[in-house]
């Protein structure tokens, strides 16, 4: 296997030689895939390369400050006719997770595929693979790429990369936080990364209605004998708090602050007649994806989920799921 | 005014020449004053110096992992008879805030006073003063001191310093977060700082009962016309959630996550017949300490508080304070 520096050089050469580049952010995009792809996009723009960025789903509201985010395309039509000679996947743990199956088939030409990722399960699906599970984030790898190639990191590139590192480390609180990620974050502040904007959008992004809804979820926390702590949110709660399901984003992660829970389980009623269950754990030996798989779901060891048909009913014995 | 390096050398010389050293953490101790003082204590122990550490109030539960925390003394009696020749105040914004007035009078000998702090209001109350308002924390200054004097930072010292930086920057989220604080945090991880322990104690430290109580506070959030968002917690809430007033620590800071609040106001009923009001803001031009002063309270620009006699009553028009 080629070493990292060699792979960075190969990637740089492939970009230098390419005339039409497609960057791919994974479906249901988060701060890391968008930060990493947009850092790359900002550099490609600065050096005058032709490029497009594709994502199956739109950029979430709380990440609509990343430089060039409006540049991201969501429909195949706009790019299917372009003869790409290079496609770079950043932060996609697999080709299918990238969510571009139908698009790939339509693309003209025979593009070289590059795969830059930090997920340990990545099967090295591309021609050129840089998969580094010790990195906090794909954004950290993009930083290393820029640094290794003596590419000047601009304020916009720094803002993108820091967003990726900050969100994937849970604001420098989860186990992905390493010496390298912290030191790079410091350097990115030195390059002028807009830290205040990042925290305003990614941390200070709750409304009164969101937190009223969270309040209901917290008020209903229930400790079960097996160390599971659960809570529920119904469609009626959304109505009464004048909130949307987007306002529930982050509540399961927030509950990781619990010291006395082995597994945190958040049950959310969906209007389509099922209940979505989010599972989280911070405990070393616990794998919630195994639990999710038993119910037909999936995810990561520390964060997973599944859905069951039914709705949430409050009974004298507590909340339960009633089949529909 | 002597430069920083010169002052660090003066401090080092004073420590070298001292036979009995007293370290002072400020009253109502937080992660920074304890982290900074205990980093210094661990080094003094390593080099075989005679020293004591004093604090007016006990170490809070969530900081009882800091190496040597059990070494801290709370009563004057144990140290009043010792002929100290050096007293080092770390993170005390004034001599009175240190909370050692009566103790100072009892101390035998004529100690030299050293004042290491990062609060801009510090009046340079000691003989040797190192007051650096650009530092994220007093702990960052202790790091700089060690580095400037080529002192080897052990794992225990690193754990103490990182605790101070992490807590004073709000987990690397508030405006105290700088390039230097991030880069130093990275280096401290390199020195083996026990990051997992720090986050387990300072972030993942909520119980189900604590969060049920927080849930009540969130559920009652009320937006007022002037951009103030308020909430209330009564003595009855503590009873029903089987929680204590310690469980309310952090709720006002957590509410800084609100994007649509100019000022956050948390009203807590005290059994002694008054209501404690905590004020927070993240807005550049807002000074909540000025508001607190109008009601006989005080604090910082971004975090302040006051108390009024009375208790909290729920009326059809909302919550209000009723005089007693």
TrEMBL record, chains A, B:
Which parts of the sequence belong to the DDH domain?
Answer: 21-165
Q: Boundaries of each DHHA1 domain copy?
A: 240-309
What single Pfam family name could you report for this chain, choosing any that match?
Answer: DHHA1
The terms under GO molecular function for this entry are:
nucleic acid binding
UniProt xrefs under InterPro entries: DDH_dom, DHH_sf, DHHA1_dom, Oligoribo/pAp-PDE_c-di-AMP_PDE
From the Swiss-Prot or TrEMBL record, give the protein name. Uncharacterized protein
In its UniProt entry, the species of origin is given as: Candidatus Kerfeldbacteria bacterium CG08_land_8_20_14_0_20_43_14
């Amino acid at each position: 296997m080629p070493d990292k520096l060699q792979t960075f050089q190969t990637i740089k050469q492939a970009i230098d030689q390419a005339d039409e580049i497609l960057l791919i952010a994974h479906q249901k995009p988060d701060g890391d895939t968008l930060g990493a792809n947009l850092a790359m996009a900002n550099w490609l723009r600065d050096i005058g390369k032709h490029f497009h960025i594709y994502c199956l789903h739109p950029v979430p509201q709380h990440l609509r400050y990343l430089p060039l985010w409006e540049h991201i395309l969501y429909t195949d039509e706009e790019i299917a006719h372009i003869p790409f000679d290079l496609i770079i996947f950043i932060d996609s743990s697999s080709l299918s997770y990238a969510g571009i199956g139908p698009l790939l088939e339509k693309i003209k030409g025979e593009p070289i595929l590059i795969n830059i990722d930090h997920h340990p399960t990545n099967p090295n699906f591309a021609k050129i693979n840089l998969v580094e599970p010790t990195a906090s984030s794909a954004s950290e790898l993009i930083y290393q790429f820029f640094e290794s190639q003596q590419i000047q990191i601009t304020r916009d590139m720094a803002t993108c990369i820091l967003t990726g590192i900050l969100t994937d480390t849970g604001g420098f609180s989860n186990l992905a936080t390493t010496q390298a990620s912290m030191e790079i974050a410091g350097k990115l502040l030195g390059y002028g990364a807009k830290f205040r904007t990042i925290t305003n959008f990614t941390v200070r992004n709750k409304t009164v209605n969101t937190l009223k809804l969270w309040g209901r979820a917290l008020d209903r926390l229930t400790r079960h004998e097996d160390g599971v702590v659960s809570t529920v949110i119904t469609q009626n709660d959304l109505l009464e708090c004048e909130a949307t399901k987007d306002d529930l984003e982050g509540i399961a992660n927030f509950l990781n602050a619990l010291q006395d829970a082995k597994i945190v389980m958040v049950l959310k009623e969906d209007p389509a007649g099922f209940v979505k269950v989010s599972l989280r754990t911070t405990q070393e030996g616990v794998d919630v994806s195994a639990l999710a798989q038993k119910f037909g779901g999936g995810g990561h060891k520390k964060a997973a989920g599944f859905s069951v048909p039914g709705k949430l009913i409050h009974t004298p014995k507590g909340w339960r799921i009633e089949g529909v």
